[in-house]
Amino acid sequence: MLQISDQIYLPEEEIEFSAIRAQGAGGQNVNKVSSAIHLRFDIPASSLPAPLKERLLATRDRRISSDGVLVIKAQRHRSQEKNRADALARLAELLEAASRVRKPRRATRPSRAARRRRMDDKTRRGTTKAMRRKPEH
To answer: Scanning 4, 9, 33, 132, which has the fewest C-beta atoms within 10 Å of its C-beta?
Structure first.
């Protein structure tokens, strides 16, 4: 069980892991040991609440495929266990961020006094710059 928040839990059976060879430098070890982890999580087929699924699928994350499968590749560490824990932590972080509901923005307008102050500042700045110019004959 992966705990996302107080109310949201994710069963381990819904997460698919596969070990792959890591990319990058590392000498012969990188060629012979499959230490990187691919985490695959099918969002539409998961047991997550429907609003959370919708928010997750609505995010413009390149790790989410068009059919709603989230793929996280973890290869920061040399051991498979640490990469697996890293992938789970990144999944939990993504789900926790999607579980927070942002309050809708209310459109506001600047007050009349604020608009007047802005125009006065612009006039003052323009006057200062005009004083720097060479005088006209």
So the answer is: 132
